[in-house]
Structures are given as structure tokens and as C-alpha cells.
Amino acid sequence: MEMVGVLLIVIVGAAIWTIAQYNRLITLRNQVENGWKQIDVQLKRRHDLIPNLVNTVKGYMEFEQETLQKVIAARNAAVGASGVADAATKEGALTGALSRLFALAENYPTLKANENVRGLQEELSSTENKIGFARQFYNDIATKFNITQQVFPGSLIAGMFKFKTAELFQIAETAERQTPTVDLSLKK
Amino acid sequence: MGRQAPNIYEQQAANKRNTVIVMVAFTLFVGFLGYGCDAFLFGTNGMLPIVTILALVVGGVSAFSGLQSGSKVVLASAGAQPAAADNPQYRQLHNVVDEMAIASGQPRPNVYVIPDPDPNAFATGKDPAHASIAVTDGLIAKLTRDELQGVIAHEMSHIRNYDIRMMTVVAALAGAVMLLTEFGSRSMRFGGGRRSSGRGGGAGRILLLGLWLFALVLAPLVSQILAMAVSRQREYLADASGAELTRHPLALAAALEKIDGAIEPTRAIKKGTAHLCIADPLGRHINEKEGAFSNLFATHPPIAKRIIQLKAMAYQHM
User: Fold this and answer.
1) Which of A54, A162, B51, B83 makes the best surface tag, with the fewest CB within 10 Å?
2) Within chain B, what is the greatest distance between any pair of CA atoms?
3) What are phi and psi of A81, to 5 degrees?
4) Nearest to B173 by CA among B214, B219, B212
5) CB distance from B105 to chain A under 8 Å?
6) Which CA distances in Å does B317 have to B9, B233, B243, B294, B310?
7) DSSP B277
8) For residues B164 and B230, what is the distance between their CA atoms, to the nearest angstrom?
């Protein structure tokens, strides 16, 4: 009789633990997916801001038409990217084109003094930050998800329900790795 | 001595552990005070510890009712105004708050501005979904973008770590101590209480009574010291978790240096909100002095010490 009681407690305890662990993994998986979508949201924002910026600076930077066209081309390529690896490469190229544009903008004092351009620069530099922080958060939450799956005894549940580990975000293009910071701040 | 400086994650773990230790000590202290009231004054040996429960309930209710309406009262008393999103002056502030909300994976808090030239900031709200961050005009004017980001990351960490709730629990315990002290000393003065002289216990009981009387006398002091210890641990924790968000501890260190350099107290922010600010708004010198005694009563650790910790994190993280 007593044995049955003990057994019952063990079984109920194990069931509760399994449910808790399973729910934890599901929650984390959703957070990982949401984290990935956040990156997309920010990238989309960047794509929307660029035509605005190019139109605003066009009049001031007559002699840099080529650079401006490169930015627009890189932006259009990034919008049309398909797949994670392709997107990472094209977004990296866009980051490069933008940083060249901002480096050139340093030569145009009237441009830097323009209220609109300053506002746009703040928006773009903030969007660059947001992309970075969204990736950072994605990697943090994906790491947490992976650790939860891999450590014992949670690994039993992860294996039982066939959870897959999340892939971490990595910088695809070597050029982007070499110039990781884009200084868009306005020097006073 | 020669010990390696802790990195961001070790710092966070240590601060969380310290909070637990202080909270356990605080709870035990309240329990002992209550036990004394029950045993020596009420004679409820082995029965329901009615006085202790009553004190905890009253302390808890008053503290938690404050939590519900707290943020509105706090923001209003500081004269905080919602920062208009379309005002170009506040664009950067809104962007930085957005960035930190993304970095921490938390909902975006409401953003308020306080018309005060002294640089300071605080966070309030009962949970991340109902949180607000308020900064002074002085903070916006004096800090660079990176430094502002460091400060917002610190405030965002207060929200993420549920520090507002934590300090409410501390206030509940402090409230219970106040009630018990009041009750205890009043009963003693009127010679009241059923001092169960007849029943046994002997030397052990007398020793316990002495210890309790001693605790009763020191209670207001002890409860203040414990509450401030929690507050300081939460500051260190917010610094460390903020550095984890920006991965740029030196920016917060630079911001703290600037805030420290502005000697003026932040007049708009009242004393009750002090523990949620980035730096003590009263500009009390107690927070600046090193040394065991002045440390005991400060809401914030000395800024110099916080800067050293942040710089250590920066080198660890390279």
C-alpha cells in the first residue's frame, strides 16, 4: 500500500516536471522566433529610410551620384534577397555602401548643417543600432534555448520531443567583419 | 587581493546572491521581532503568532497598495511630462529607449522628461509591461548618445530585474518592523503584556528576552541598514546588466563621471524615489565617502566604486 503511494507521488512529480520543462522549451522557441522576426523588422525599416535619405542629400552631393546610385542598388538588392545567407551578404554590402556615403558626407558642411539630414542621420544610425541589438538579443535568447536543450536532465525532454537547436547569427561577409563600426554620429 | 575581477555574468550572479542573503536576514529579523512580541508580551507560546502576522499584513498592504498607483504619484511628484515623440529634441531619447527595449527583449517603457538642469534619471512601474523611464533635461543636454544609452540600459535593467517590486517588498518588511517596534516599546512602557513569569524556560528564556529587547531598541536602525543594503546591491546589478545590454560598460562609466561632476542636487526628484535613480538625487555626500559606516546608510554605492567595477567589466569583456 505504502509502495503504491510512493510510486504515485514519483509518477505525478515526474509528469509535472516534464510538463514544466516542455512548456519552458516552447516559450523559449517562440522567443527565438520572435527575436529573428525583430531583426527583419529593423532591416525593413532601414530599407524604408534609405530612399528618403538619398533624395534629401541628392541636391547637396551632385558630384557623388555614383555613390548614391551604389547605395540605392545595394538597397534594392537587399530588399530582393531570398534566404538567410543571401540576405546576410546583401545587407552587409548595404552597410558598406552606407558607410561610404556617410564618410563622403563629411566633406559637405552645408549638408551636415541641414536639419532634415541630421534627423535622417539620427534615424539611420539608430536603425543600425537596432539591427545590432536585435541580432544580439537573438543570439542571447537562442543560446539560452540551446543550453536548456543540452543540459541534463532537460536534454531528455528536448530529445523526446525532437527540439532542434537554434542557429546563431553570424556575420557573413568578411568586409563587414573588418569594419564593424559605422560612425554616423555628428561631430560638433 | 590579486583576485581576478569578476566579469559581467559573475557580477550579476554575485549581486543576486547578495540580495537573497540580505532578504533572508531581513525576514529572519522581522520574524524574531514578531516572535518576541508574541511570546513575551502576548504569551502566545505555541499558538498562532498573531502579532507577527498582523504586522506583516499591515506592512504588506500599505506597501503593495503603493505599488499599484506608485508610478503615477512618483512621476507627478517629479513634475515629469511625457516626452513628445514628434519633438526633434527628444528623437534621440526615444530611439535610445527603443534600442534598449530591443536589446533586453522587453516591452517599450513610456518615456518622460523632467524639467531639471541636473543630470539624473529613474525608472518606475510595477512590472515591465507598465514601466516608465524618466530623464531630466540636464541629462539629455550633458550626455553623448553612447552615455545616454548606458544610462537608459541601467534603468531598463531596473525594470527587467523587477527592482521596483523588490523595493516594495523591502518597504513592506520595513513597515512591519516599524509596527512591531511601536507595539513592543509601547507595551513595555505601560508595563503591559502578560509576562509569563510562572512558566518555565529559565536562563535560556531570559537570555532570549534580553536579546529581543536589544533587537527592539536597534530595530529602526537595523531595518534601515538592511533596506539600503538591498538598494545598493540592485544598483550594482543594474550597472552589470546594463553593461550586458550595451556591451559598452565604459559609456556608463563616463556618464556616471559626468553625473557625479554635476554637484547640484536634482530638486525635482523626491527622497522616496532616490533608490530608483541612476545616482542619488539628493547629492548626499554619504554616497561618495568610502568606508564601512557611511556605506551603511546610502541608497547608492559610491560612484567611484561603480566606475571601477564598470571599467573592470570592460577589460574582462575584451
Assistant:
1) A162
2) 78
3) -65, 145
4) B219
5) yes
6) 10, 21, 10, 32, 11
7) B
8) 12
CB pairs under 8 A between A and B: 38
Which CATH architecture describes the domain B82-162+232-317?
Answer: 2-Layer Sandwich (3.30)
A positions 58-117 inside 8 Å of B (CB) = 115
Which CATH homologous superfamily contains domain A2-178?
LemA-like domain (1.20.1440.20)
User: What is the ipTM score, two decimals?
Assistant: 0.77
Region of poorest pLDDT, from A79-93, B45-59, B189-203, B261-275: B189-203
Query: So where are chain A's domains?
Result: 2-178
B155 is known as an active-site residue = yes
DSSP lists the bridge partners of residue B245 as none
Helix (H, G, I), strand (E, B) or coil at B40: helix
pLDDT, tens only, B61-107: 877 777 777 788 888 888 899 998 888 889 999 999 999 999 998 89
pLDDT of residue B318: 44
Task: Return the closest-CA partner of residue A17 out of A172, A154, A177.
Answer: A154
- The alpha carbon of residue B214 is apart from the nearest alpha carbon of chain A, in Å, by 46
Report the distance separating Cα A14 and Cα B292, nearest Å.
Answer: 49
Residue A184: closest CA among chain B residues belongs to which residue?
Answer: B145
The minimum CA-CA distance between B304 and chain A, rounded to whole Å, is 28
Averaged pLDDT, groups of 10, chain A, 188 residues long: 88 93 93 90 90 83 81 91 80 87 82 80 88 91 91 87 85 50 49
| Length of chain B measured in residues | 318
The amino acid that residue B182 corresponds to is E
pTM: 0.83
- What are B220-239's pLDDT values in tens digits? 899 888 888 888 889 999 99
pLDDT single digits (tens) B276-318 = 778 887 765 555 555 556 677 788 888 888 998 898 888 765 4
Which residues of chain B form CATH 3.30.2010.10? 82-162+232-317
